[in-house]
């Protein structure tokens, strides 16, 4: 299996007052950092979305090579070798949760490759305690290779994202963010570029978009207010973010079937011909050889005075195809993000069965919650950049 070094940058930020101002680098997570116990915990828990998955511990994941790290690469994948018994546990996979939680912050997810395949349900998202009362922010998520990506909020009752509001380029699909209605679809904003999710995302090396050079190069300071109009924008005017969001933990996971991917499996022609989702996942391990994340880095930023460094570059226009731009603020005020429609719920509490097929961060099946903090805007910018280097990284299978 060979991966190119082309990237997707998913920029997620929860900030005060329209994300204005400088944010300083807090964590630059690369390679082996992902495996540090002080950075991520492995959640070997029953899948809240009732997926055909068996989330394993750190030691099991490393022993089976489901996680792999080198200097600038981190791989998270599912078992692609074992045929499963219908009466046994699901396909082995990994679910990570950040040890650090975040209030007002910007998060940059530098992703080269995302899991694909019928039955897959990958997600990168943020969530708070006591879901859905502290909110959920879906950043990159979807099922069964269905794009484009969508950014979504899941909250307690009383938070909406009205259609037609200014400040975003994506399409608002549902307005009510309440996780207890509409099958927990949330209030997704569908991105405008099909390259924002799935096979097209991978084929484009992560997609193409205008991204500030300072961001893609790992700047020590960033100013989200200079990034342009996001794909998704969730203002505090119709959602009290101080009330509905609290500190967020980053979650990265890959499940199969369940309340979203399983429920809409037969609605995707290329998947329907394979029979039932569960049987397909059980009997076809090699179908999931491309069901892996390849992360170059995750960088998180918090409010702070900028260091003595050159000013941030203007957006890089060498690539003119704009992908998804989503930013989410975790400081309880306005939130922006891009998302698609489709129920999702990767929460640590029981989900409701999704209703439509979309991709949460493609449809909506991720979780993010935030505790109260000063009101702020949430914006989620998902952008992909292509590096000029033509190097490739070989990922061992054993």
Automatic annotation (TrEMBL):
InterPro entries named in the record: Beta-glucanase-like, ConA-like_dom_sf, Glycosyl_Hydrlase_16
Organism (species): Ephemerocybe angulata
PANTHER family hit by this protein: GLYCOSIDASE C21B10.07-RELATED, GLYCOSYL HYDROLASE-RELATED
GO process terms (BP): glucan catabolic process
PROSITE patterns in the cross-refs: GH16_2
GH16 domain boundaries: 40-289
Pfam families in the record: GH16_XgeA
Keywords: Signal
Region annotation (Disordered) ranges: 306-376
Low complexity: compositionally biased ranges: 314-376
Listed transmembrane segments: none
Residues annotated as signal peptide: 1-20
An annotated Gene Ontology molecular function: hydrolase activity, hydrolyzing O-glycosyl compounds
Protein name as it appears in the record: GH16 domain-containing protein
């Amino acid at each position: 299996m060979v991966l190119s070094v082309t990237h997707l940058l998913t920029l997620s930020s929860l900030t005060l007052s329209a994300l204005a101002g400088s944010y300083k680098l807090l964590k630059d997570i690369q390679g082996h950092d992902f495996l540090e116990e002080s950075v991520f915990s492995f959640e070997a828990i029953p899948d809240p979305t009732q997926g055909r998955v068996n989330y394993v511990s750190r030691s099991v994941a490393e022993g089976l090579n489901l996680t792999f790290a080198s200097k600038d690469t981190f791989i998270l994948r599912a078992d692609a070798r074992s045929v499963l018994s219908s009466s046994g546990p699901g396909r082995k996979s990994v679910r990570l949760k950040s040890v650090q939680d975040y209030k007002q912050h910007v998060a940059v997810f530098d992703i080269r490759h995302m899991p694909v395949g019928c039955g897959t349900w990958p997600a990168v998202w943020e969530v708070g305690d006591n879901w859905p009362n502290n909110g959920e922010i879906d950043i990159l998520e979807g099922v069964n290779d269905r794009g484009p990506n969508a950014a979504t909020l899941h909250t307690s009752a009383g938070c909406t994202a009205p259609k037609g509001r200014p400040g975003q380029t994506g399409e608002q699909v549902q307005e009510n963010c309440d996780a207890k209605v509409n099958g927990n679809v949330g209030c997704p904003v569908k991105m405008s570029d099909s390259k924002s999710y799935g096979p097209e995302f991978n084929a484009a090396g992560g997609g193409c978009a205008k991204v500030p050079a300072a961001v893609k190069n790992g700047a020590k300071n960033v100013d989200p207010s200079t990034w342009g109009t996001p794909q998704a924008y969730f203002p505090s005017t119709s959602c009290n973010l101080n009330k509905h969001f609290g500190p967020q933990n980053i979650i990265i996971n890959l499940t199969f079937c369940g309340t979203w991917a399983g429920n809409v499996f037969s609605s995707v022609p290329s998947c329907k011909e394979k029979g039932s989702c569960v049987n397909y996942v059980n009997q076809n391990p090699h179908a999931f050889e491309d069901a892996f994340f390849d992360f170059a880095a995750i960088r998180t930023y918090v409010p702070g005075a900028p260091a003595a460094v050159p000013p941030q570059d203007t957006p890089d226009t060498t690539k003119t195809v704009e992908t998804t731009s989503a930013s989410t603020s975790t400081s309880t005020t306005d939130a922006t993000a891009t998302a698609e429609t489709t129920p999702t719920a990767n929460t640590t509490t029981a989900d409701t069965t999704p209703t439509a097929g979309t991709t949460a961060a493609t449809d909506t099946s991720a979780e993010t919650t935030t505790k109260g903090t000063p009101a702020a805007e949430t914006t989620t910018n998902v952008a992909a950049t292509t590096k000029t280097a033509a190097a490739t990284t070989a990922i061992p299978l054993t």
